[in-house]
Amino acid sequence: MPRAYSSGVIEASADQVWSVVREFGRVDNFLPPVKRSELIDGNDQQVGAIRRLTLADGGGTLDERLLDIDDRDRQLSYEFAGENPFGARDYRATVRVSPVTDSKGAFVEWWADFQADPAAAADELVGVFADGVFGAGIAGLREIVAGPAE
Fold first, then answer.
1. Residue 150, pLDDT score
2. Cβ density class 34-58: b for 16+ within 10 Å, e for less
3. Distance (Å, rounded) from C-alpha 100 to C-alpha 140?
C-alpha cells in the first residue's frame, strides 16, 4: 500500500499548532489547495464528523470523515468519505503534532496510506499528497502560527 509522507518543524509550541490542526472543519485556514472547508455532519470534536472540501484549483469537492481525534497525543485521522477526484481508495490520513523539546517548537507529521486506481498512478499520487497537500499544509500552518518567513 503506498504511503505519502511529509514533515516539518514549526517555531511555535505544539499546543499552538495543535489548536489550529484540531479544528477539523477549518482546514481551509491553512491548506492552500482547499478553497473552502465546511462541516456537513457533526462537529470538530466528534468522531464521524464529515467535512466537505472545495478544491482551489477547480478540481471539485470531496468529503472527509474524522476517524479519530486525540488531544493528549495531538493527533487526528480521517478518511475519504465517498468519491474523490484522485482515484484513491482505502485512503486514511493522519496528522500528528509533537513537541520539539530542545527548541520548544513543534514537529508536524502528516501521512496517508491508500490504494490507487489504476495502481500505476500510485507514485504520482504519493507526490500529490506528500508535497501538494501535506507539505503545503505544514507550510500553511507555519505561516499562521509562526508568522511569514523573513
1. 54
2. beebebeebeeeeeebbbbbeeeee
3. 19
- Helix (H) / strand (E) element for 89: namely strand 88-100
Lowest average pLDDT, out of 4-8, 21-25, 26-30, 142-146, goes to 142-146
| All residues at 6 or more sequence positions from 134 whose CB lies less than 8 Å from its CB, including other chains | 4, 5, 6, 110, 111, 112
CB-CB contact of 6 with 30 (8 Å): no
> Predicted confidence band at 59 (pLDDT cuts at 50, 70, 90)?
confident
Note whether 134 and 140 are within 8 A (CB): no
Cis peptide bond N-terminal to 118, omega within 30: yes
Closest CA to 134 of 1, 46, 3: 3
pLDDT of residue 146: 78
Give 77's DSSP letter.
Answer: E
